[in-house]
Design brief:
It is built from 8 helices and 4 strands. It is an alpha+beta fold. The chain has a 4-stranded mixed sheet with strand order 2-1-3-4. The longest helix has 31 residues. It is globular. The two termini are 17 Å apart.
Length: 210
């Protein structure tokens, strides 16, 4: 059985968890308290020497880091994997885009706005910079989604899961969905896909498994 090490509220941890839920794969979810530094404990470093989450231990006892690598592995041979070489390349394009143009800015802005709101005032300048740097990527994604329901014309795939991880919580980063109507519509459509489960439920499941 796959074992996913994850922390509460993380968009990156959400991606492999949602992928397994939608593919009805068995998975043990283990909670790592990153706010208290548990990811640097000797016990966790023995599992993942890099000391980060998410981390996936496969049923073949292989360890996989990086959320987008995890969902690529999990989707192999399933309907969530794009079927043609061109579609797979396009999926990778958007997965790379998410990690370079969206997540690095939405994630920290959200962290100091929603996860640690007591630091919002002291980090206000940083938050404003992260928000500003996220906007061009969000605008490009919004334009892309104006012409199609999902990231790929062929339909819902791991490309959507990868991008959805942090984009769907953009308002928790102090950004507004009303500025990106196509993204807002896409978030609603992804949330209606079969066997979809929300990020908040990952937290409930993790607490129950802890």
């Amino acid at each position: 059985m796959n074992i996913l090490y994850a922390c509460l509220g993380s968009g990156n941890c959400f991606k492999p968890w949602l992928t397994m839920k939608q593919l009805q794969m068995d998975c043990t979810l283990k909670l790592v308290d990153v706010l208290s530094g548990e990811q640097q404990s000797q016990e966790y470093l023995a599992i993942n020497p890099l000391g980060v989450v998410p981390y996936l231990q496969t049923d073949g006892d292989t360890g996989i880091g990086e959320s987008n690598a995890m969902i690529w592995y999990l989707a192999e041979g399933t309907p969530l994997m794009p079927q043609t070489a061109v579609e797979r390349a396009e999926a990778l394009q958007w997965m790379f885009f998410e990690q370079s143009k969206l997540e690095p800015f939405i994630s920290p802005a959200r962290f100091f706005t929603t996860i640690l709101p007591d630091q919002q005032t002291t980090r206000a300048d940083d938050i404003a910079q992260w928000q500003m740097r996220a906007m061009p990527g969000l605008a490009r994604l919004d334009d892309h989604l104006a012409e199609r329901q999902f990231i790929l014309r062929s339909g819902y795939s791991i490309a959507d899961i990868a991008v959805f991880g942090y984009v769907h919580v953009l308002e928790e980063a102090g950004l507004s969905k009303s500025d990106y109507p196509s993204i807002a519509r896409w978030i609603a459509d992804v949330s209606q896909t079969p066997l979809f489960r929300p990020l908040s439920e990952l937290g409930q499941t993790a607490k129950a498994a802890a």
